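Need tokens for this chain, all 388 residues.
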Amino acid sequence: MRLPFHRRTHRIASGLGALISGALAILVSPAAADSPRGFLETVKRHATLTSTVPDNGDQNPYAIVVAPVSAGKIQKDDVLVDNFNDISNLQGLGTTIIDYNPSTKQTTLFAKLPRHLPQCPGGVGLTTAMTMLKSGWVIVGSTPSNDGTTRTKGAGCLLVLDANGQLAATWVGPDIDGPWGNMAVIDNGTSATLFVSMAGFDLPPPDVHDPATGFSVTLHKATVLRIELTVPAGKPPVIARKTVVGSGFAHRADLDGFLIGPTGLAIAADDTLYVSDALENRIVAITGATTRTSSAGTGEEITRGGLLNRPLALILAPNGHLLACNAWNGQVVEIDPLAHKQIYAQWIDTNQAQSPPGNGDLFGIAIRPDGKAFYYVEDDMNTVMESR
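Here are the structure tokens for all 388 residues:
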């Protein structure tokens, strides 16, 4: 979603700019003013860790994943980040994954995939759909384009890389089209379950507008796909079965952001899958996520509007609350999903080159291994950040 400054035209309710008092300004919603403070209260400052731009000039960091194990070129707790744009800032053409080691503070290239990969429909454009399994395999989504828009979008695929960044398998199929949102993962070592949003079905070019709204045509065909894997010893993971557990989510092409659809996915211990429904500006819940045999549609609404401003990446904090990155400003919002309450929001990107500050800058987010802070990307500056 890295937008050139002259094309950042999104607006939200007036007056937000006046609320900013620095990178750590806290916004408390009136309804939640008396609620207990949560995880974000412990975050006091933010630091830049590294650039995400590799030698080939790829830009627009999307996914951020913390390595659960040491394997191949990767050390446990390394931070993996992929890029969605190429050196010309064209979306859907990024092919690289970088590896940042927090101990040595060194950044290296983990993987560089071929742009034109015949077994992946449309080629390679790496998205926020990325994870690393305990077995060392890295799985990443591709939603590719040839011109930076959905006009030339391919269906894409899921790519399986070994721990040295080499392509080992490619997953395609009629239920895989535009793997988009950050994955929710349950990893048992010899088996794993992935949840991935698919936001590419039947998307028209961005200049095909709905005359009633003036925006690109909105469809309701985006899905959440559950992928159950077996992981043979020493071999790439294999798909055992796939099930659509969520469907009918709104999605549309977007000239600035490529496409907009369900992005954030987080799985709780009670088997509830939370989904950030970006176009509806809400968070929803799908119950029985690992066992259901049919789609829950768009699930149960947990919270809408308020401090949310087009929520994207979604994670569970150690206290059981959700953290959602906003697309339309530089805030992260904390939500108590059981109480259906928004707790508060924190500005983590106050770049005033955008309006509102931080608009279009945030995407991936991941909890630090010690559970005391989080990593995130700022795609306006192509950097990995850390809260402290």
